[in-house]
Design goal:
Elements lengths: L1 E7 L8 E6 L2 H13 L3 E8 L8 E2 L2 E12 L5 E18 L5 E8 L14 H11 L14 H11 L4 H9 L3 H16 L1
Parallel strand pairs: 1-3
Antiparallel strand pairs: 1-7, 2-6, 3-4, 3-5, 5-6, 6-7
Length: 191
């Protein structure tokens, strides 16, 4: 499967929303083509380089996302919301003349939902408190309050920790590792 890539300074987990302002011609074309052909866009973390200008060096694991909302903003830019669906691994990268990156990818199986239990129940109110402070699409997103995998993914996306840590957790299949990292971030925030 070949998909266009949107290299960003962000890490997105399956199920997560990502509001963006799109202004570069290559990405406007990419979004338009994606919406017409219902092709997913690959959101992938930049390892070295910038979001604008020449194609950057990227990590090899990202997340496929669909354009689930779009509007013309007051500033004239295109506003979109991407919603992540599936992790992927880059097999081969292609860069065209406009510096738009596409990749041949291999789909990575998403983690199975995991029921909330007594040990993990306290994460939900923390997430709810964060989501209520944010505007749409976070405040209005579909919630999976009984799924520790979904809750932990949203917390890793939203809590302050390094992009490298977020990327490592995106690449990992270990929810316990994710929960340990969240507990560490929360403990550090109390000090």
């Amino acid at each position: 499967m070949n998909i266009p890539l949107f290299p960003l300074n962000t890490v997105l987990f399956p199920g997560g929303p990502l509001p963006l302002r799109v202004f570069e011609p290559r990405y406007l074309d990419m979004v338009s083509r994606s919406m017409k052909t219902e092709t997913p866009i690959g959101v992938i973390l930049i390892k070295n380089g910038d979001e604008v200008g020449p194609a950057p060096e990227i990590y090899t694991v990202g997340t496929m996302a669909d354009v689930t909302y779009w509007h013309k903003r007051a500033d004239g830019l295109l506003g979109i919301t991407l919603t992540a669906t599936q992790r992927f691994k880059v097999k081969d990268i292609h860069v065209n003349n406009s510096q738009l990156m596409t990749a041949d990818i291999e789909v990575i199986k998403n983690l199975e939902p995991l029921n909330v239990n007594d040990d993990t129940r306290y994460f939900l109110p923390i997430l709810e408190q964060i989501l209520e402070q944010l505007g749409p699409p976070f405040k209005t997103m579909e919630r999976h309050a009984d799924d520790v995998e979904w809750i932990s993914a949203r917390l890793i996306e939203l809590l302050p920790t390094s992009l490298e840590d977020k990327q490592a957790l995106l690449e990992s299949n270990d929810i316990a590792e994710r929960l340990t990292k969240i507990e560490s971030i929360l403990k550090d925030a109390k000090h």
